[in-house]
Design goal:
Layout (H helix, E strand, L loop, with lengths): L24 E3 L2 E3 L5 H22 L8 H12 L8 H7 L5 H22 L10 H27 L11 H11 L4 H11 L5 H33 L2 H32 L8 H20 L6 H9 L6 H26 L10 H28 L4 H12 L3 H12 L5 H25 L23 E7 L2 H12 L9 E10 L7 E5 L7 H6 L1 H21 L4 E10 L4 H11 L4 E5 L2 E3 L5 E4 L1 H13 L3 E6 L2 H5 L9 E7 L3 H13 L5 E10 L9 H18 L5 E8 L2 H11 L5 E5 L22 H6 L10 E6 L7
Parallel strand pairs: 3-4, 3-7, 4-6, 7-10, 11-12, 11-14, 12-13, 14-15
Antiparallel strand pairs: 1-2, 5-6, 8-9, 10-15
């Protein structure tokens, strides 16, 4: 009736989307079960994929320090036709062929947003300021493999070196050589984060070189692709047309995205988050850029990548986009593409074994060529041998970008299932090998090992004291300033201070370490990276400027730095600065803060993790400053011009370090030092050891000063029989002194500490530090918990 006399055939299809219940129903003679419907089946597929991925990673592969992509691929292989996908019920109900498009669509959208976010996190300004070393390594690393692989492609295929390769297989080999010559910055960044070396010198070099390689290889491949289109069509005008459209798209994105981003930033009030509508608009623009790139002849993922590069990284826009999308995209959709590609792998139906051998040889040859092309320029740039080898493995690794290219080639039938399976397994092998080799070549835990004494105890009397003070908040800077004021400086023993503001990296992947000039209130790099961090840095500079005006002279030197990085990698910035500047001690703020009423207002787990990591990895001594400055500001007792410092001494390297620092403080005008030595009631408990000899030597000078009627130094001995008496004596000291220095580590069998270790709330402070860090202390006493430097053997 709608089309009288028409010849078009029509059919009625019942689309089964939503399930009516968990139990199956018999409708019109058809058995409609729960898994018959598309939406419940899709959710079940996602649950199984991610549940299996997380189980493999957490319970098995994480113990071997293998990357997460291995778990994602193995989960796909297990669910695919290689294992449980061979069963008829699984093929019929779980992953039917006509339903795979839903998971495929989600994985493609997730991959596009992943590429877009990777571009947002990149800093294009890093390319011109990367330095000669990154350029010298990056350019040959792209050109040499490309030229060599093109030559091998022509020699092997056109000259018929391998005559058994059928001519229909030639496009597969050529496409493989092209994909193997690519570099992927997102894959490099993910590997560096997994290995926890993104803030090290090697990590920074890998980021800069990887960014140059990625951009340059994409540029070269785009130009060659446009020329190839004209050659294949025998019409040079086609190449010009394709190049003009590609250039026009890039120009269109430049002239539209930058002004729109600037407008969004202007309309966002300072200190407030970007409106959600603008984030959604950027997602829409990323998908639109994908469509435009595909229609002008570019690879479809170039569009969102270029768009992401044009979005200003960092707050407020770039960080808002990353905050809203990163967890969902990087944690859900991008791994989905890897797992879904793994379900296409069939390792049981392999027929042309000779050709598969050629595929493996091709992949291995390409991998070796890329490693050599990176390794040799790195050696020429005087990169250490182990670091040069690690850099080669880092930049040559394969990840989600290469697997996506393999999957696209399978879809457009450039690859058959055999070739795709071998190439994807090869990506799994190379990713695992790269991860293991880099972890073995570059041990991040020993990156800043000190082979020389860098502590206060072993400083000569005529050496300058170098301190690194770290701040997260303004209160940290105020507390550290008071400590610096009582750190004595003179012509014979000058004081050099390196103040480091630690700011969280938001909306970008490249960490920054900014060197300020004292009094320079604005730093372009800091403002571009994080306006909020730059604002806080200015306030900290103001605090230190006032300190400089009062105390800095020819005997005191103050330098200020800002480190912007992820909280779990901040220890690298602190350690690198202390290592480069030959510091003797790092002063860290305590992770808890109290107000003037004694109530806990800050308890930062990230700050605590930073402190614990530095206690293990720092190249010098470490001091954790527990500050109660706010209680001191509200104390009702009349102020006094003297500052009372105490040292609790029980013996050991950490106590000697604390005592040596306190002896230096005693030379400051207005500082009175009291050394309290706790000795056991049972003198037979003490053992004659080398530490006892060193303790006596350090205490000799203190006793001499105390016996010479020096009112600034007082020496006392308290006899205690167990930890309970020690605790009572220490609590009495809280109301007398302004600053108490204690060592972190002591011998486990000391009678003076018996029973205290069993009640530790914060083990990293040691028994005495934990006792003095409790919230219930009402006096305004500050505490410095000291650990002397670990000295590693070569």
């Amino acid at each position: 009736m709608e089309d009288p006399g028409g010849t078009h055939d029509k059919c009625l299809v019942k689309t089964k989307v939503h399930s009516t219940g968990l139990w199956g129903r018999d409708i019109d003679g058809m058995d409609y079960r729960f898994v018959t419907y598309s939406l419940p089946r899709l959710f079940l597929q996602l649950c199984i994929m991610f549940g299996l991925t997380q189980a493999l990673h957490l319970f098995f592969l994480k113990r071997f320090r293998l990357p997460r992509i291995i778990s994602e691929l193995l989960a796909g292989i297990i669910l695919g036709p290689t294992l449980i996908g061979r069963f008829d019920w699984i093929k019929t109900n779980m992953i039917p062929m006509y339903e795979g498009q839903y998971v495929d669509l989600l994985s493609k959208i997730g991959f596009l947003l992943f590429i877009f976010l990777s571009g947002v996190k990149m800093d294009p300004g890093m390319v011109p300021r990367s330095g000669a070393k990154a350029w010298t390594i990056g350019i040959p690393s792209v050109l040499l493999p490309y030229v060599i692989l093109k030559y091998l492609s022509r020699k092997v295929l056109n000259d018929h070196v391998w005559t058994h390769i059928h001519r229909y297989r030639h496009p597969a080999i050529q496409n493989t050589l092209g994909i193997q010559s690519f570099y992927s910055f997102p894959v490099t960044a993910v590997l560096l984060v997994d290995l926890k070396i993104i803030n090290t010198e090697l990590g920074r070099l890998a980021l800069a070189t990887g960014l140059i390689c990625d951009l340059f290889s994409n540029l070269v491949s785009t130009i060659i692709a446009n020329i190839s289109v004209g050659v294949m069509s025998a019409m040079p005008l086609v190449s010009v047309h394709s190049f003009a459209l590609s250039s026009g798209l890039i120009l269109f994105l430049v002239v539209t995205v930058r002004p729109l981003s600037a407008m969004i930033i202007r309309r966002t009030p300072e200190g407030e988050a970007v409106d959600t509508f603008h984030v959604l608009f950027m997602c829409f623009a990323a998908l639109l850029a994908t469509v435009l790139a595909d229609n002008v002849g570019m690879n479809f993922h170039y569009g969102p990548f270029i768009l992401g590069l044009l979005v200003p990284d960092g707050p407020p826009l770039g960080s808002a986009v990353v905050d809203k999308l990163d967890t969902l995209v990087s944690g859900l959709f991008a791994p989905l593409l890897v797992t879904y590609s793994g379900t296409k792998i069939d390792l049981l139906n392999l027929f042309d074994l000779r050709f598969l051998g050629v595929v493996w040889i091709t992949v291995m040859v390409c991998y070796v060529i890329k490693c050599v092309a990176i390794f040799l320029p790195a050696l020429a740039c005087r990169v250490p041998l182990r670091d040069a080898a690690a850099l080669a493995f880092i930049l040559s690794t394969q990840g989600v970008v290469q697997i996506s290219s393999y999957h696209n080639s399978l879809v457009n039938q450039t690859y058959d299932t055999e070739t795709f399976s071998m190439l994807t397994v090869a990506a799994l092998v190379t990713a695992a090998v790269s991860h293991i080799m880099v972890a073995s070549l570059h041990d991040y835990s020993r990156a800043y090992c000190g082979y020389e004494r860098r502590n206060i105890e072993h400083l000569s009397k005529t050496s300058e004291l170098r301190l690194v003070t770290c701040f997260h908040r303004l209160e940290d800077a105020v507390a550290a300033r008071k400590l610096l004021e009582v750190s004595f400086s003179s012509k014979e023993t000058p004081l050099v201070i390196y103040s480091l503001h630690l700011a969280e990296l938001v909306g970008r992947v490249t960490p920054l370490l900014i060197d300020h000039q004292l009094g320079q209130m604005k730093t372009s790099a800091a403002a571009a990276a994080s306006p909020a961090a730059n604002s806080r840095s200015q306030k900290l500079v103001a605090v230190l400027r006032s300190f400089a005006q009062q105390h800095c002279n020819e005997f005191v030197t103050l330098n200020f730095f800002t480190a912007i990085s992820l909280p779990k990698f901040m220890h690298d910035d602190v350690s690198a600065l202390a290592f480069d500047k030959l510091a003797s001690m790092i002063i860290l703020p305590f992770h808890r803060k109290w107000n003037h009423l004694g109530r806990l207002i800050v308890d930062s787990s990230s700050m605590r993790l930073l402190n614990r990591t530095l206690l293990d990895l720092a190249p010098c001594s470490v001091g954790i400053l527990i500050d109660r400055e706010k209680r001191r500001m509200h104390r009702r007792s009349p102020s006094s011009s003297s500052y009372h410092v105490a040292v609790i001494f029980m013996g050991g390297a950490d106590d000697r370090e604390a005592l040596c620092y306190a002896k230096r403080m005693s030379n400051t005008p207005g500082v009175q030092l009291t050394v309290v030595r706790f000795v056991p009631a049972d003198h037979n408990a003490e053992k004659t050891q080398w530490d006892a000899v060193l303790d006596s030597e350090v205490l000799k000078e203190v006793r001499h000063l105390a016996q010479s009627n020096d009112t600034k130094v007082c020496y006392k001995e308290e006899t205690v029989k167990d930890g309970a008496e020690t605790a009572c004596t220490v609590h009495e000291m809280e109301h007398v002194f302004d600053l108490i220095l204690v060592g972190r580590r002591h011998e486990t069998n000391l009678p003076q500490l018996f029973g205290l270790s069993q009640w530790n709330d914060i083990p990293e402070l040691g028994p005495l530090g934990d006792m003095l860090a409790i919230q219930h202390i009402r006096s305004p006493v500050s505490v410095l918990v000291v650990q002397q430097q670990y000295v590693k053997n070569k």
